[in-house]
Design goal:
The chain is built from 43 helices and 16 strands. By secondary structure, it is an alpha/beta fold. The strands form 5 sheets. It has a 5-stranded parallel sheet with strand order 8-9-10-7-11, with helices on both faces. A 3-stranded antiparallel sheet has the order 1-2-3, with no helix packed on it. Strands 4-6-5 form a 3-stranded antiparallel sheet. The N terminus is likely disordered.
Length: about 950
């Protein structure tokens, strides 16, 4: 197959990537990358569709596997800019590229050339080629690629890399470089404890370095491990080497390393790394990725990695662990310094340079006085050497700059609580441990057996620690020192947020002290923002909400927030969104309580509530055009957010729901909280419940506002929050409770002379009366509500009131008045352009026409209502009109259509977990199935419907029970 022209190259020895020049191409999902990997590992070869499907999904592909595969191929072709690179060959696909357009091809060529150089006796060239081959690796091969093919190739390629590593070490040993490979082999044998060849090489390197006892100790450790893990003895080669060492076999001595000029003094290579953390746990992927970055740069440009994160996140532990894992790649030494960036007096780079120069063999008398000259001499000393620098706890890029090498060969690892912006580095923001990693660390300190006896309590402790490594270590250490304590007892201590930071201290370690170091670096404005933003009980802070909380313009607020992110005191998971680590939030709140007056803290919550109400009002106006409710909302200081479309507005409601409920909760607990705003907010959210994901939190929050308003004697807020609660209860089909709240609200609003609330209560009670089939009561209530709404000029509410009365007139047997009322409601709603009142009126006309036997007209009106409700995404309303349409089809003898419509309603009810809708749909299915002569299925549906109707206390209960008992004939 002809190879294409072009500059696309592929990498599989790490994450699967494609590059055109220096630009990485967006390959899309892991599945698409899996398809590309299968083709890239067989360049210029046709791979059948069956092979691709099996490699991606194994023996159980999805029903549309072939179509999905073609979609993946099509998307990849779009990324590549056409079909010239990824081509079809009959029923196969192929990647038109050369072997060396894929990194594994380059790797295999270099390994083959190294093998030839070794055979020719050129060990230096062989070592260089093998090192170059291993630099092709950037981490775990095919990282993140799903499917059986990915699993198999990961295993094969990992073995290939390990074999090549062993070969490179053999070459180094053959050249007499035994001292330089001991550290690397020690790390490799720890990583692969059952691999005998690595143990053999380590024994040989130690023996040739005059460390016979250690070499024999490796054999003892190996034998113990193999016996314990596999129940076998070491192999013949390892045993023979062991005997040779015991006998001091001269054939094991190997060549001597090349000697340097005898006149030069021997300067020990710096090995300044702190000891690795014995119980280092987790972050395996991160360790592999960063180690690969450092190894890849050993002979090229200077790789600089800057690891940042909050205090206690484990930056130093991770960095030291990585440094130990790659120190064999930097045989000329390792330099380490704590730059004390969080202290009041960070280390002076000039003083650090003097120490580094002395470590590299420069005499005190030769160390220049000027800092710039020291930096220049330092770069000269590193030229031609492979040294690893670890710059821990840096303050900023200015402190680090003079300490960086000037030429390739060396590498730098930096840790800092701030982002090292301005450095030519790979930036690694470190996050909290994963759940399993935190549990492993906890168990390593406490003891796995003890942790395994209380797994739920362990999770409670880890959650309270926010999975912060320092906090987990402190908690585990406290328990390790108290063997008689149960983990659950300590978890209970941590539940108290006000005491949690006090509990997380042991010896010289304390989470609060670690946070204090970062806080002290803040200026007054930033420190105030850090404190005050922790006061609102929100899971996260969108920029607009934070700006409202601080009463600042968005641009100024963003500058402050981004600065807090840079210092590691806030996280920003995506642009315009911020949040605290859980323990940092507790620390910030404690500082706020110490520094900021209660009135100021309450004002912050009030501003967030005000902003949330303003934005929710804007959402309501967008989603419910023509509805009068926003006009009754108390005025707000903030304008709130505006939205371009319905989806964006609904998304905001869903995303902010939990935070909104928490803010309302804080408001009810504050004696000075703005209850009227909280009550109006709850009413708007209750009226929007059919627009967003259902949540019982609305009812709980509305009840809390009503209780707080009653305690304070705030009648207006109590009335509105009770109405919000009634709307929630009605939506959940808890009619008696809804009517009780509305009745109390009517009494309070009548006593206070609040006409709008009186009318609202009457309308709500009228709707509930219709739902329980108290039609005469409903007419009396609605007749009182209608003139009140007219006096307010609220035509949208008039339309709803008249439409509801149509149902009541029909219930008392007055079909003509029912039809007239529904027609009037439709005329009014269309006249004012209310997109919600209009389908409601159409719904009522459809019900009336259906009862009058005019099924064709009824169906037309109902279908129009359904279309409008669907456009508005009002799920419950859509389902209820569908149930009416199913009944119209049944009356017309169109049982198949009735069945389809009832099934659609059932699906909506189940998606929204609405018991009454589900029950109604099941009852409608029973009637349709009766008409289709399927009595068995009909019986099952009605039995299920009966149970749900009973749980709702619905009036349909007796009718369905009668159908099941035979007391009521099937329709």
């Amino acid at each position: 197959m002809e190879q294409p022209a072009g500059a696309v190259r592929f990498t599989v020895l790490g994450p699967v990537q494609a590059w055109r020049g220096e630009a990485e191409l967006p390959l899309g999902t892991p599945q698409q990358r899996a398809v590309l990997a299968m083709l890239a590992l067989r360049p210029a070869q046709a791979v059948s569709v069956d092979q691709l499907v099996a490699g991606l999904w194994g023996e159980d592909p999805p029903p549309r596997a072939l179509g999905t595969l073609r979609t993946y191929v099509s998307r990849l072709r779009t990324v590549f800019g056409g079909e010239d690179l990824l081509v079809s060959v009959g029923s196969c696909y192929a990647l038109r590229c050369g072997a060396e357009d894929v990194d594994v091809g380059v790797f295999e060529r270099l390994v083959a050339e190294a093998g030839q150089a070794k055979a020719d006796g050129d060990l230096g060239e062989a070592g260089r080629l093998l090192t170059a081959a291993l630099r092709q690796w950037r981490g775990e091969p095919l990282a993140g690629v799903p499917g059986p093919y990915g699993v198999a190739q990961r295993t094969r390629l990992a073995e290939r890399r390990l074999t090549t590593l062993e070969t490179r070490v053999e070459v180094e040993l053959a050249r007499g470089e035994h001292a330089g490979v001991v550290a690397e082999l020690t790390a490799l044998t720890s990583e692969h404890p059952l691999r005998e060849r690595l143990r053999e090489l380590l024994m040989l390197a130690l023996y040739r370095g005059g460390r016979q006892a250690e070499a024999l100790g490796v054999f003892t450790d190996t034998r113990r491990t193999l016996t314990k893990e596999l129940g076998i003895e070491p192999g013949e080669r390892l045993c023979a080497l062991h005997q040779g060492i015991l006998a001091a076999d001269p054939d094991l001595a190997g060549p001597a390393p090349a000697a340097g000029p005898s006149a030069e003094p021997v300067v020990p290579k710096p090995a300044q790394l702190p000891a690795d953390v014995a119980d280092f746990t987790g972050r395996a992927t991160r360790v592999g990725e960063l180690a690969a970055v450092l190894r890849a740069g050993a002979d090229g440009a200077v790789p600089i990695t800057a690891i940042s994160g909050i205090g206690g996140i484990g930056k130093t532990a991770l960095t030291v662990h990585i440094a130990h894992s790659v120190r064999g790649d930097y045989p000329d030494g390792q330099l380490y310094v704590d730059l004390e960036g969080t202290s009041s007096r960070p280390r002076d780079p000039a003083a650090v340079l003097a120490g580094f120069l002395r470590a590299l063999g420069v005499a005190d008398s030769a160390v220049p006085e000027e800092a710039s000259e020291r930096a220049a001499l330092f770069r000269s000393c590193l030229a031609g050497r492979r040294v690893l620098l670890v710059l821990d706890n840096a303050r900023d890029a200015e402190q680090v700059g003079p300490l960086l090498p000037g030429a390739g060969g060396s590498a730098v690892l930096i840790t800092s609580r701030t982002t090292m912006a301005g450095l030519p580095a790979v930036f690694v923001p470190l996050e909290a441990l994963e759940r399993a990693e935190a549990a492993a660390l906890f168990g390593a300190i406490v003891g796995q057996r003890r942790a395994g006896e209380e797994p739920d309590a362990v999770l409670d402790v880890l959650t309270a620690c926010g999975f912060l490594p320092l906090a987990v270590r402190i908690a585990a250490s406290r328990l390790a020192c108290r063997p008689d304590w149960t983990i659950a007892s300590f978890a209970r201590r941590l539940r108290d947020e006000y005491r949690r930071l006090d509990q997380l201290r042991v010896g010289d370690l304390a989470v609060e002290a670690t946070f204090e170091l970062s806080y002290r670096q803040l200026g007054a404005e930033h420190a105030e923002a850090f404190r005050l933003l922790s006061v609102p009980d929100t899971a996260f802070l969108p920029l607009a909400t934070a700006a409202a909380a601080l009463d600042l313009a968005e641009q100024r607020a963003e500058d402050i927030l981004e600065s807090l992110v840079d210092t590691g005191l806030l996280d920003s998971p995506r642009p315009g969104q911020y949040h605290y680590h859980d323990l940092l939030r507790l620390y910030a709140r404690r500082k706020a309580e110490d520094v900021d007056p209660a009135g100021e803290r309450g004002a912050v919550v009030g501003r967030v509530l005000d902003f949330t109400l303003a934005t929710t009002r804007n959402v309501f106006r967008l989603l419910e055009p023509g509805d009068s409710q926003p006009g009754y909302v108390v005025p707000t200081y903030a304008a709130g957010l505006s939205f371009a479309g319905h989806d964006e507005a609904r998304d905001w409601l869903d995303v902010m729901r939990d935070s909104t409920m928490r803010i309302v909760g804080q408001t009810t607990e504050d004696p000075a909280g703005e209850l009227r705003q909280a009550a109006d907010l709850m009413l708007l959210l209750a009226l929007l419940m059919d627009r967003v994901s259902p949540s019982g939190d609305v009812g709980l929050a509305a009840r809390a506002v009503a209780a707080a308003a009653r305690r304070r004697g705030d009648r207006g807020s109590e009335i509105r929050s009770r109405h919000a609660l009634a709307v929630f209860l009605h939506h959940a089909w808890r009619m008696p409770e809804a009517e009780a709240e509305l009745t109390t609200g009517l009494e309070l609003s009548t006593a206070s002379g609040d006409t709008q609330c009186v009318a609202q209560s009457l309308l709500g009670l009228g709707i509930c009366a219709v739902e329980r089939r108290g039609y005469a009561d409903a007419l009396a209530l609605l007749d009182k509500a209608r003139p009140l709404y007219r006096s307010l000029g609220d035509n949208a509410a008039v339309a709803f009131t008249v439409a509801t009365s149509a149902c009541a007139h029909l219930g008392v047997g007055d079909g003509d008045r029912a039809l007239a009322a529904a027609a009037e409601a439709l005329a009014v709603s269309r006249d004012i352009g209310d997109s919600i009142a209009t389908p409601n009126a159409l719904h009522q006309i459809g019900i009336v026409l259906g009862e009058l036997g005019r099924t064709e007209e009824a169906g037309a009106h109902l279908r129009e209502a359904i279309a409008m409700y669907k456009r508005a995404r009002l799920r419950t309303q859509t389902a209820r009109v569908l149930l009416c349409l199913a009944e119209v089809h049944r009356k017309a003898g169109e049982f198949g259509q009735a069945l389809d419509v009832a099934e659609e309603a059932l699906a909506i009810g189940r998606q929204s977990h609405h018991a009454y809708v589900i029950a109604g749909a099941l009852a409608a299915l029973g009637s349709a199935l009766d008409g289709l002569n399927q009595p068995g299925r009909a019986l099952t549906c009605r039995q299920q419907a009966l149970g749900l109707f009973e749980s709702c206390g619905a009036p349909e209960t007796e009718h369905v029970r009668g159908l099941l008992s035979g007391a009521v004939p099937s329709p």
